[in-house]
Amino acid sequence: MTLQNKRRADCPHYAKTELLADLLQKILPDFHIHKICVHPSDWQDWLEGTCSSNGWKHESSPIVWRELIDRGGKGMLLGGFSDFLEHVQGYYGITSDMGSEQMMKIAAENLQVTEVLMEEAARQNQSLQVFHIWITGALSPTCYSLIPKLFTTELIRDISTISLHLLDVNSSEESLLGLKMETEDLALSQLHEVTVHSDMTWAFQSADLILFLDDWPSNSETPVEQGDKDHMVSQVAERFRSYGRLVEANAQKDVRVMVAGDSYVNLKCSLLIENAPSVDPCRFVAMTTQLEYEARAQLAEKLSVKTTDITDIIVWGNISGSSHVDLQRAKVFRYKGSIWGPTGFSQQVLEMIYDKKWLETDFLSLVALRRRAISLKTNRTAANSATNGILAVLNAWSNCYSSREVFSLGVVSSGRAGNYRASHDTILSHPRVDP
């Protein structure tokens, strides 16, 4: 059993609960206690956020809860100081006779130590000028694929000191610690620290870049029932509203935010923008490049060229829903047809593919089902192509994308995109040059 014991740094009742918890950890098998001290100035915001995300009601310090599976698992509120004492006495017949004077003395010492540690951390961060990257859905295959390559992007390559924060809500802390160890073993010269988080308590603190990889995939081969779909959408909305509020409260105001995944990508990005009103909406993007590259791969196979020989595909609409792959400007290079040209010579894709029926039927279904086909063959998500798409957007953010090549990206709409009408403030995928 794992107990979480969190309190204000100046809370006198904490000393008594800590003494009892330490004793239980010493005498009971498989009993673990995790203690966190919160400064008085941060306590109320932290308490309200924690209770809101868990559906609890609690107003005083300390707060004690039991995690039913592992640290980071689902929590059951035990209560405060009196509740914990009654729980320990009722279950184990143990109590504490610590007096009020000693409790006050320990509380003052705790506050002093907390403030010293906070000052040291602030001085260290100021001197290092740390760039903070947060990744959610950290235990996803995409994150595993992304981390080693992330530090090679143009956006990050010249940054000397980076803190990487890995968040996977309600996941096993052991799994996150394993990921932390593996990341540290990469021996990346820019990496200052790796932190892991299984709850949203401190999410996006000082964030300069946030990558949202959370997903709610359906692995079933049968259509999802409407009730299940509604429940899934409700879960997505609740999670990303909370994320948006935390971005608003904790992240830098010039933070860059990218949403990637296989489900509800536009919705997630919209909810983040809606709940982080002080951050410029233009700093939020939804990743379209994976879908764009999947379409390029199908066309390349049809024309017997490399995927890189297909360019200027445009994706309009809802990235993980109703979207349109526009080939009006698509080009093919090095196509072995009746017309040849010098290096850099290209032809229109629509003129080289004579099978219009294939374009209107098979091509669209092949693109739509590409990721699912990969997942069925590999029993995992298409992590490598997702990583490649994320890296392409990060490089584009550093103006490393060719200005002559069309680039699709999900961004907030101003009401019209090309010949397509869209509601104001809607996330819509359309062509961009500099995201």
UniProtKB/TrEMBL annotation:
The keyword Oxidoreductase applies. SUPFAM superfamilies: LDH C-terminal domain-like, NAD(P)-binding Rossmann-fold domains. Keywords: Oxidoreductase. GO terms for biological process: malate metabolic process. The keyword Oxidoreductase applies. Gene3D superfamilies: Lactate dehydrogenase/glycoside hydrolase, family 4, C-terminal, NAD(P)-binding Rossmann-like Domain. GO terms for molecular function: malate dehydrogenase activity; oxidoreductase activity, acting on the CH-OH group of donors, NAD or NADP as acceptor. Belongs to the LDH/MDH superfamily. MDH type 2 family. This is Malate dehydrogenase 1B. It comes from Astyanax mexicanus.
